[in-house]
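Figure 3 (text version): structure tokens given as input.
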């Protein structure tokens, strides 16, 4: 039976919005939820990058258009965006490690997203694998639609038999929330 729930769909279809709504619904029913999501950063009406935002409210840059990496760091680029690995790891890794801690009870860990930018981080890849196999932790996450060269960890997640992948479309996005919450709740049992 599926324990983890991952949403997939094209960019801009509403995956992050559904993750945020599901997190709120779970929290309000008393479920411990932690993790992070990514959010567009706009300036003058155009997207200039993405921030990583933890559910506890901490925020930092994930990527920016054409910025240069800090001295001595390799450049990790996805299209026009340069990924700030240090900032991402400082925010994302602690919330994943919290999810792995052996405190009693079931918890939900939000990972939005396991995508190209995030996968430049080897410690993130290890932390996701660890969290997937941590008893008592349910992941509510997002993965990109397959496009071009397959991303190893994304395909690994997609084919696990303890993962349910839900496709988000413009047609179903307004009706998926109850199903997402129900899947996460049943994964906690």
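Below: residues designed for each position.
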């Amino acid at each position: 039976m599926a324990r983890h729930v991952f949403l997939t769909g094209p960019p801009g279809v509403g995956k992050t919005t559904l993750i945020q709504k599901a997190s709120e619904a779970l929290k309000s029913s008393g479920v411990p939820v932690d993790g992070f999501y990514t959010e567009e950063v706009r300036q003058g009406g155009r997207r200039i990058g993405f921030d990583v935002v933890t559910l506890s409210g901490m925020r930092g840059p994930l990527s920016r258009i054409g910025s240069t990496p800090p001295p001595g760091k390799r450049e990790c680029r996805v299209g026009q965006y340069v990924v700030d690995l240090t900032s991402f790891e400082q925010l994302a890794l602690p919330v994943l490690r919290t999810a792995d801690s052996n405190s009693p009870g079931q918890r939900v860990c939000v990972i939005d997203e396991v995508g190209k930018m995030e996968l430049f981080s080897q410690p993130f890849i290890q932390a996701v694998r660890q969290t997937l196999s941590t008893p008592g932790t349910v992941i509510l996450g997002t993965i990109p639609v397959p496009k071009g060269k397959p991303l190893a960890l994304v395909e690994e997640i997609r084919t696990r038999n303890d993962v349910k992948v839900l496709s988000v479309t413009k047609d179903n996005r307004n009706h998926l929330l109850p199903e997402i919450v129900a899947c996460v709740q049943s994964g906690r049992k």
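The first strand starts at residue 4 and ends at 8.
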